[in-house]
Each structure stands twice: as C-alpha cells, then as structure tokens.
TrEMBL record:
The keyword Heme does not apply. PROSITE patterns: HTH_TETR_2 (PS50977). It comes from the Bacteria. GO terms for molecular function: DNA binding. SUPFAM superfamilies: Homeodomain-like, Tetracyclin repressor-like, C-terminal domain. The keyword Chloroplast does not apply. Keywords: DNA-binding, Transcription, Transcription regulation. Residues 8-68 form the HTH tetR-type domain. Residues 31-50 bind DNA. This is HTH tetR-type domain-containing protein.
Length: 196
C-alpha cells in the first residue's frame, strides 16, 4: 500500500515537477497537466497549491534555491579551499550531461520569465541563487587572501564562463565544450589560490 503524502510533501513534489517541466519545455510551453503528470498527482492539486502560473515559477526557483544553497554549505566544511573548489568543480562536472541536453534550469527559467511585476519575487529568488553561487566562490577566494572586490569579480567571471559554456555546449550538443571549460576553470581557480 502506498504511503499517503502530506500536503507539504505534495507541494514539494509539485514544485520539483514544475522545475523539471519548465527546464525541459520552457516556462511558456509548460502546462499544469504536464506538471501534474511529472509529479504523478492530479491536476487539481496543482491548481489548488499554485493558483497562477507564476506561482509555479516561484516554487520551481525556490526548489532550486533550497537545494543549491545547502549543497554549497555542505562542501568539505573542514577542508581546504582547494579541496572545496575541487569538489565544487566535480559537482559541476557531474551535472554536465543534463546541462548539455537541456541547458541550465535556472538560466532557462530566468530568461523565460515575463517582464511583469507579478514575476518580481520569482526573479529575485533566481537572482539570489546566482548571487549565492558567486558569493560562495568569492568567499573561498577571500579565505586564501584575494581582496574582496577581486574575489567577487573572479567569482562572477567563473559563473559567467560556466553559464556561457552551458549555452554553447547545449546549442552545439557538444559535451567537450563544457568539459574543456570546467577543466580550464579548475586551473584558473588553482592559479588564483597559488597567486593569492
């Protein structure tokens, strides 16, 4: 007999499904029925928990934030900066196949959000995820002695290069593009650590 899900578990399952559907199909093509099918729950449950489509976008972005932020905090808290950055790049590398086939889920949703004030909370959540990533990298570089402004600039550059490589690898359906860029980013991070 299947275990009955709590209301919060259903909400989380639908939010994750929304994230997956929007990533796969894009925000504009995503439908309530597709989210329900992905979650394996009735469509009425989607309407009940997310009465407007922008509520689904917000939930999808909150799901990304809720997964990514703790992940960064959990990376080798007692390790060295070099170890933490190695694990971080290993994580990016593990995501490569899905990034090549579907692009970045966060970037895809952020680019698809309509220019409408109703989407401002969702936009702010997505920006917070990118900012959290940049800030985490910058924090690692500050620990080894890089000045805060340079560390932030380098963190932004690393994220920008990774995101650009995702776009190109996805567009060209060529994993080598993303593999090469992640390898180069590893070397860049090591040079920054060594030069600090």
């Amino acid at each position: 007999m299947a275990t009955k899900l709590s209301s919060e578990e259903k909400r989380q399952k639908l939010a994750r499904a929304a994230m997956n559907v929007i990533w796969r199909d894009g925000y504009h093509a995503a439908t309530i029925q597709a989210v329900a099918d992905e979650a394996g729950l009735p469509a009425g449950g989607v309407f009940y928990r997310f009465p407007k489509k922008h509520d689904l976008a917000q939930a999808a972005l909150e799901t990304m934030e809720g997964e990514f932020t703790p992940l960064l905090a959990s990376i080798a808290p007692n390790g060295t900066v070099r170890e933490r950055l190695r694990i971080f790049f290993d994580y990016l590398d593990a995501m490569t196949p899905r990034r090549v086939s579907h692009g970045c889920p966060l970037a895809r949703l952020m680019l698809d959000l309509p220019d409408d004030a109703a989407f401002d909370p969702a936009r702010q959540t997505g920006q917070a995820v990118f900012n959290g990533l940049i800030t985490w990298i910058a924090g690692q570089l500050e620990i080894v002695g890089l000045p805060a402004d340079r560390a932030k600039s380098e963190g932004r550059r690393i994220v920008m290069r990774w995101q650009g490589a995702i776009v190109l690898a996805h567009s060209m359906n060529d994993r080598a593009i993303l593999d090469d860029e992640i390898n180069d980013l590893r070397q860049t991070a090591n040079r920054l650590i060594d030069g600090a």
